[in-house]
Specification:
Blueprint (H helix, E strand, L loop, with lengths): L1 H15 L2 H14 L2 H6 L3 H4 L4 H18 L1 H13 L4 H25 L10 E3 L2 E3 L3 E4 L2 E5 L3 H18 L16 H40 L3 H14 L6 H10 L5 E4 L2 E4 L1 H11 L14 H18 L6 H18 L3 H8 L3 H21 L12 H12 L8 H26 L16 H7 L3 H12 L6 E6 L3 E6 L8 H7 L4 E5 L2 E5 L4 H13 L1
Antiparallel strand pairs: 1-2, 3-4, 5-6, 7-8, 8-10, 9-10
Helix pairs in contact: 1-6, 1-11, 2-5, 2-12, 2-17, 5-12, 6-7, 6-8, 7-8, 7-9, 8-9, 9-10, 10-11, 10-16, 13-14, 13-16, 13-18, 16-18, 20-22
Length: 538
C-alpha cells in the first residue's frame, strides 16, 4: 500500500508541476489589471483599460486561468502515464478519450432522462435536488462538476485497462487493433458505461465530500478554523519523509473536500482553486484564512533557513567556509522556492526527534497562526519568496486585505529565532554530525577536480545509482518528483543503505520501505531519472 500511494503521489506531481507557470501568469496578470492598484499608483496611462499593456495582461490572465480550469483532464493524463507499465503515450491518449466520453455520457444521460429541474436548473434525482452539481467541461454542457476526482476516475480506470491490454494479441484479421491500439478502444467503451453509472452514484459521493468541506467551513465560521489548520500542518509535514504529503493535501486544494465557494458567479471547489479564481476575478472576499496554504510561508522562508544558519554556526572552524556554501544553498532554496526537502533531510536522518518533535509542531503552529491572523496568501506548490511576492505582496497592494505582512512578522519574530536557537542548542548538546561538524563530510571539490569530472560524473553517477539499487535486473520502475528519485525494485534487500547513499552517492538521504525506494537528490533527481531510464532501455 505504501508503494502504491508513493506512486500515486508521484503521478499527482506531474500536473502540479504545471501550476507555477500558470500561477505566475495569473499573479502578474491579475495584479496589474486590478483597477485599484492602477489608480493607487497613477498608472492609468500605461495600465488603464484600453492600453496595450492592459490588453496583454488580460490575455496573460486568461492563459493562466485556462490551466486551472482544465486540471481534471491533466490529472486523468498524469494518472494514466504514472501507472502505465509501458506504452505511456497510448495510455495518455486513452485517458483523454476516456475523460471526454465519460463527461459526454454523463451529460447525455442527464438530458435523455430529464434530470434537470427546468425552473431552478439544478440536477434532480427523484425528489432530491443537488445544488452546484452541473457544469460545463471542455464545451460539454450539463456534465458533473467533479473537479480533479473526475480526472482521477478516468485516469485510474484507464491505467488498469492499459496494463491489462497494452500487449493483447488479437486474431490476424484484427491484428491492426492489437497491442497499444486496443487500449483507447477498451477505455472508451468502459468510459461510456461508468459515465452512465456516475449519474446515479456521484451525486451522493459528491455530497459526502462537500459535507467534509462544509464542515471545515463551519469550523471557520465558528471561530475554530485554526484547529483544522493546525491539524493540517502537523499531518502534512509528518508525511514528508514518506513522500505521501501530495496525496494528503491535494484533495483539500483541488476538490470539494477543501470547501465549496461561489466566486464571480461560478461554483469553485478546493482552496487552491478558490484562490486562483479569486485572483482572476480580483475579489478575495470568499477566500478563507483556513486555506491549507498560507501556513507554509513562515517556516519555509524564515524557519528552515535559520536552521541552516545554526548548522553553519556549529560547524568546525576549519570547515566553516565549505559548510557555509552548502548550507547557504539549501537555505536559500527553501527561502526562494519553498523546496525544503534538501534542508529537512539534512537533519531528519541525523535527528528524527528534532524533525518530529520540533519541526512538525512548528509547522502546525505556523498554519494555526496564519489562520488566526487572517492571512490569505495562496501558492502554486510551495511557500517560497517567488510565490509570496506574486500571490501575497502584489495582490496586497491592490487593496486586498490579505495581511501578507504578518508572514514576515511571524517569520522574523517567531520562526527564525525559534529554529536558530533550538537547532544550535540541540546540535551542540547531542553533538550531531551536521555538515562540516565532528568529522562529517562537506561535499566540495577543487576547480581542477570539477573540470576533470564534469563531463563524466553525471553518466558515472547514473551507473553508480543503478548498482546501488541492486543492478539493472533488480529495478522495476524509475521516476522522480521535484526532489526525489523514486524507484520500485524487486528485492529491497539488495539496495545499499542510507549511509552508502549519503557518503558515496551524494544523496541527502534514502527512504527505504520494502521495494519502495526514495533517494533525495534535490533538483538533480529529474536528470538522474532520465539518465537511468535511458541506460535501462538499452
Amino acid at each position: 500500500m505504501k508503494a502504491f500511494f508513493s506512486k500515486l503521489s508521484q503521478a499527482f506531481m506531474l500536473p502540479i508541476a504545471l501550476l507555477p507557470a500558470a500561477g505566475i501568469m495569473l499573479g502578474i496578470g491579475g495584479s496589474f489589471t486590478n483597477q485599484s492598484m492602477v489608480s493607487a499608483y497613477g498608472l492609468e496611462s500605461i495600465l488603464g483599460e484600453g492600453t496595450f499593456l492592459n490588453s496583454f495582461l488580460q490575455i496573460l490572465t486568461a492563459t493562466g486561468d485556462i490551466v486551472f480550469a482544465n486540471l481534471p483532464l491533466m490529472f486523468a493524463i498524469a494518472l494514466a502515464i504514472g501507472f502505465a507499465k509501458a506504452e505511456k503515450g497510448a495510455a495518455a491518449l486513452a485517458a483523454v478519450m476516456a475523460f471526454l466520453i465519460m463527461n459526454v455520457a454523463i451529460a447525455t444521460t442527464v438530458s435523455v432522462l430529464g434530470l434537470v429541474d427546468p425552473e431552478t436548473g439544478m440536477f434532480m434525482l427523484g425528489d432530491l435536488e443537488f445544488e452546484g452539481l452541473l457544469t460545463s467541461t471542455l464545451g460539454i454542457e450539463n456534465t458533473f462538476s467533479m473537479g480533479v476526482f473526475g480526472g482521477i476516475i478516468a485516469g485510474a480506470i484507464t491505467a488498469v485497462l492499459h496494463n491489462r491490454y497494452y500487449n493483447v494479441k488479437l486474431p490476424d484479421y484484427l491484428g491492426f487493433f492489437g497491442g497499444a491500439r486496443f487500449v483507447p478502444i477498451v477505455a472508451s467503451f468502459a468510459a461510456l458505461f461508468y459515465g452512465i453509472a456516475l449519474v446515479f452514484i456521484w451525486p451522493f459521493l459528491g455530497a459526502g465530500l462537500s459535507a467534509i468541506g462544509n464542515g471545515l467551513g463551519d469550523l471557520t465560521a465558528a471561530g475554530y478554523g485554526w484547529v483544522a489548520s493546525l491539524i493540517f500542518g502537523l499531518v502534512e509535514r509528518s508525511l514528508i519523509p514518506m513522500g505521501l504529503h501530495h496525496v494528503f493535501y491535494l484533495p483539500l486544494w483541488q476538490t470539494s473536500v477543501g470547501g465549496e465557494y461561489l466566486i464571480a458567479g461560478e461554483t469553485v471547489y478546493g482552496t487552491q482553486n478558490a484562490f486562483f479564481a479569486s485572483l482572476a476575478a480580483g475579489d478575495f472576499s470568499q477566500f478563507p484564512s483556513t486555506n491549507f496554504m498560507t501556513g507554509k510561508y513562515p517556516f519555509m522562508m524564515f524557519g528552515l533557513p535559520a536552521a541552516a544558519f545554526a548548522m553553519y554556526k556549529t560547524a568546525d572552524p576549519e570547515n566553516k567556509k565549505q559548510a557555509g556554501g552548502l548550507l547557504f544553498s539549501v537555505g536559500f532554496t527553501a527561502f526562494l522556492t519553498g523546496i525544503t526537502e534538501p534542508i529537512e533531510f539534512t537533519f531528519l536522518f541525523l535527528a528524527p526527534s528534532l524533525y518530529y518533535f520540533f519541526h512538525v509542531p512548528m509547522a502546525g503552529l505556523s498554519f494555526m497562526l496564519m489562520d488566526l491572523l487572517n492571512v490569505k496568501v495562496g501558492m502554486t506548490f510551495s511557500g517560497g519568496f517567488i510565490d509570496f511576492t506574486l500571490f501575497g505582496i502584489l495582490p496586497g497592494v491592490t487593496g486586498v486585505d490579505n495581511n501578507w505582512f504578518m508572514i514576515v512578522v511571524v517569520g522574523v519574530l517567531i520562526m527564525a529565532p525559534a529554529y536558530y536557537f533550538v537547532f544550535k542548542w540541540y546540535i551542540e548538546k547531542y553533538d550531531l554530525a551536521t555538515p562540516g561538524r565532528g568529522g562529517a563530510a562537506v561535499k566540495t571539490v577543487s576547480k581542477e577536480e570539477f573540470n576533470e569530472m564534469k563531463e563524466t560524473s553525471s553518466d558515472q553517477m547514473a551507473d553508480s545509482i543503478i548498482e546501488a539499487l541492486g543492478g539493472a535486473d533488480n529495478i522495476d520502475y524509475v521516476d522522480a518528483c521535484i526532489t526525489r528519485l523514486r524507484v520500485t525494485v524487486k528485492d529491497g534487500s539488495k539496495v545499499k543503505d542510507n549511509e552508502y547513499w549519503t557518503t558515496k552517492l551524494n544523496a541527502m538521504g534514502l527512504v527505504k520501505d520494502g521495494t519502495s525506494i526514495q533517494a533525495i537528490y534535490g533538483a538533480k533527481a529529474a536528470d538522474y531519472k532520465l539518465q537511468i531510464n535511458d541506460k535501462l532501455s538499452k
